[in-house]
Amino acid sequence: MPTYNFAAGPAVMPEPVINQIQRELPSLGGSGMSITEISHRSAAFTDIIERAEADLRALMDIPDDYAVLWMQGGGTGQFAAAPLNLATTHQRIALLDSGHWAVRAGDEATSLGFKVDVVGSTKADHYHTLPELAHPLTAGTYDYLHITTNNTIEGTAFHQLPATNGTTLVGDMSSNILAERYNVRDFGLIFAGAQKNLGPAGVTIVIVRRDLVHQVSHLPSMLNYQLFMDKHSLYNTPPVFAIYACGLVLQWLREQGGVDEMERRNREKSGRLYDFLDESKLFYNPVTSNARSLTNVPFMTGDADLDAQVIAACQAAGLMNLKGHRSVGGLRASLYNALPLAAVDALIDCLYHFEKDHA
Amino acid sequence: MPTYNFAAGPAVMPEPVINQIQRELPSLGGSGMSITEISHRSAAFTDIIERAEADLRALMDIPDDYAVLWMQGGGTGQFAAAPLNLATTHQRIALLDSGHWAVRAGDEATSLGFKVDVVGSTKADHYHTLPELAHPLTAGTYDYLHITTNNTIEGTAFHQLPATNGTTLVGDMSSNILAERYNVRDFGLIFAGAQKNLGPAGVTIVIVRRDLVHQVSHLPSMLNYQLFMDKHSLYNTPPVFAIYACGLVLQWLREQGGVDEMERRNREKSGRLYDFLDESKLFYNPVTSNARSLTNVPFMTGDADLDAQVIAACQAAGLMNLKGHRSVGGLRASLYNALPLAAVDALIDCLYHFEKDHA
C-alpha cells in the first residue's frame, strides 16, 4: 500500500527527487563528499545555485530586472524583511486580510513600527471568500499592498490579482508558488518558504524587482535585500542542502512540463476533489467556488467526532496528515505539485466508502 | 584511496551519520515519508528536536537555567540577534578583536546603532596571537563582552577565557563548539552555526542564560530570543532536515565519548600536525603556541606558488579543500570532530614527502 502525504508543509516532495538525494548523498558528483559537507564557495555548489536560479527564472518567466534571492527564515522572516526593505518612503503598507498568514504578516509589520491599513477583509465571512479592496488605493499613500496569494489554512487563492492603482504589490506565495501561473511583472516582490511546494524547510525564495531594492540603515544583514542581491545570496553560508534539494525539484518541474502543466494537474486534482465534496451529502468545502485554492482543500462533515473518524480511516488507508488546521477544524488535503493524481483518487475513494458506510 | 575533507565549513560530517541519513532518507522510521517531507509539528520531529536538545545539554553540561534555541541565519544572524536581544541597557558592547569574524560581529552591531568598543586587538600582530583586555572592564558599562572562542581563519582559540569583571560574556563558538571543553556557566550567551563542527549549514545553535532574555520591541521575530524560548524554537517552520542531521551528529558524539574524548582526539590530531610543522624546514604555522586552535591550522611555505603546488599535491592524494583563506594565504587544515586521525596522518605524510622532494 503506498503512503500519500497530504501535509500542508513541510510536505510531499517528488519521489524521483528523494531517490536522487538518497543516491548521491554520500558522494556528490563522485567527489567523495556529501552535499551536507561541501563548501558554498565550491565549484559544485556554484553550479547548483546558478542552475537552480536559471530553472526558477525559466519556470516563472522571471524578467532580468528582478533579482532572485535565497534567504533563510521562511515567510515569517519575510514578514519583517518586506517592510524593512520596501516600506521606507511612507512606512505604511496596505493589507488584504484573507486569513491567518495575512494577519501574521500585518502583525509583524506593526510590531516593527510600520502603519498597517487593512484595506479589505473577509474575517466576518470566516475567510470563506477573498477580500476585495473596499476603496481604490490612493496613489502615493502606501509603500505596497500585501496579499497572500494562497491561504494555506483557509483554502482560498487569488486567481485574479487586485487592481492596485499603481501601488506595488507584494505576494506571499509560500503555498502556491509554481502551482499556478502568475505574472511576475504584476508584483514588486514575491516570496515563498520552500517547504510547501518547493523543497525541504530551511530556505526562502525572494523575487524582487531590482529598482525597489536600496540601502537601508540599521537593518540586520540576514534581512537585507541589497546585501543578498549584491552578494548573490552568498554573503554568509547559505542553507546548502535545502538549496540543492530545491534545485532538484525545479529540474523535475521543468522535466514535467513546467508551471502550466502543474497548473493543469493541480486543477485536475483539486477539481476532482471539489466535485466529490460538492456532490457529497456528508462532506463539504466551505469556500466560495471562484476563490478555491488549487493546493489546499479544507473540508469537514460538521461533526468533529465524525471528522476524527474520517481522519483515522484515511490514515489506515495510507492517506496521511489530513487533519485540518485547528482554527478551521475538519480535514485539509494539500495537493502540492509533488502529490500525484493517484493520491487524490485514493482519498476520494476512501471518503466515498466512508460516506457510504455512514449513510 | 579515501577522500578526506579538510574544509573550514561547511565541513566533514561523521561517516556513520551520512550513512544513516542515506539509509532512512526515503522513509523516516518506516513512515513512508522522508525527513524532508515531515511536519515540524509531527510526533517524529518532536522526538528528534527534544532528543537533540537533551544530547546537546548532556554533552556540554548545559544548566537548566540556560535555554537552547535552534535558529536560522548562522553566525551572521547572531551578530545582529546578540546585541538586539542583550544590549538593551547600555546599547554598548565590548569586543576582543581576534580576527575576521570578531570584526564582522562588531561591524554588524555598529551598523545596527550599538556602540562597540574594541577593548583589545591583535590586528597589529596579524592576529597571530590572542588579544588581552587592555584594561579591566568597568562594571556597569557594557551589556556584554563579545569573543570569538575559535578563529577559523586565523587559527587561534581561547583555551582560557578573559576575566570579564562581572560583565556578561558572549561567545561565538561556531568553529569549536563541542571540540573542546568550555564551561557554559562562564557565558551568558553561546552561539554557533552548525556547518563547521555540528552538521549541515542551515541551523544555528543558541545557548542563552534565561534571565538575560526579555521582551524587546521592534525586533524581527526570527531574531527574537524571547519568542524562540517561549515557543521552543517552533514559532514557525524550523529547518527540519538540518536539525535532524545535527541530532544524529550529537548522538554520534555521545557514542564516541563526548566532548572530553573529542578534545583529547583534537589535541592529538592538531598536536601531530603542529609538531610536524614546527620541525619542518619548509612549512610553518604562524600562531603563538598557546593560542593555537585545535580545529583550524593555517600553514604555509612563505611562497604562494609553492603553496599552490602543495595544495595540488594534497588534492591528488585525496586531501581536499586545504586552500587557506584569502586573507591569510597558504594552506589551512580544519580538523573538526568528524575528521579522523588517519586524515591528519595522511596529510602529514603528503607534506613530508612534498618537503623531501623539494629539499
TrEMBL record, chains A, B:
Q: Which InterPro entries match?
A: Aminotrans_V_dom, Aminotrans_V_PyrdxlP_BS, Pser_aminoTfrase, PyrdxlP-dep_Trfase, PyrdxlP-dep_Trfase_major, PyrdxlP-dep_Trfase_small
Molecular function (GO) terms listed? O-phospho-L-serine:2-oxoglutarate aminotransferase activity; pyridoxal phosphate binding
- GO BP: any one term: L-serine biosynthetic process
Stored SUPFAM superfamilies: PLP-dependent transferases
Residues annotated as binding L-glutamate are R41
**Catalytic reactions on record:** O-phospho-L-serine + 2-oxoglutarate = 3-phosphooxypyruvate + L-glutamate; 4-(phosphooxy)-L-threonine + 2-oxoglutarate = (R)-3-hydroxy-2-oxo-4-phosphooxybutanoate + L-glutamate
Q: Which Pfam families match?
A: Aminotran_5
- The transmembrane residues are none
PROSITE patterns per UniProt? AA_TRANSFER_CLASS_5
| Chain segments annotated as coiled-coil in the UniProt record | none
Question: Where does the UniProt entry say this protein principally localizes?
Answer: cytoplasm
Q: Summarize where pyridoxal 5'-phosphate binds, as residue positions.
A: G75, T76, W101, T152, D172, Q195, N236, T237
Every Aminotransferase class V domain range = 4-347
GO annotation, cellular component aspect: cytoplasm
- Where, per UniProt, does this protein localize? Cytoplasm
Post-translational modification N6-(pyridoxal phosphate)lysine, affected residues: K196
As recorded in UniProt, its EC number(s) are 2.6.1.52
Question: Which EC class heads this enzyme's classification?
Answer: transferase
Pathway note: Amino-acid biosynthesis; L-serine biosynthesis; L-serine from 3-phospho-D-glycerate: step 2/3
Q: Which NCBIfam families match?
A: PRK05355.1 (NF003764), serC_1 (TIGR01364)
Describe its function: Catalyzes the reversible conversion of 3-phosphohydroxypyruvate to phosphoserine and of 3-hydroxy-2-oxo-4-phosphonooxybutanoate to phosphohydroxythreonine.
Entry's family note: Belongs to the class-V pyridoxal-phosphate-dependent aminotransferase family. SerC subfamily.
Mind telling me what this protein is named?
Phosphoserine aminotransferase
Q: What is the lineage of its organism?
A: Bacteria, Bacillati, Bacillota, Bacilli, Lactobacillales
Q: Which gene encodes it?
A: serC
